[in-house]
Amino acid sequence: MRTMGNAFVACGIIYTIDEYSPVKTRINFAYDTKTRRTWNPNIEFTNQYCYNSMVNYNPREKVLYAWDAKRQVTYSLTFDEQS
Question: Structure pTM?
Answer without folding.
Answer: 0.88
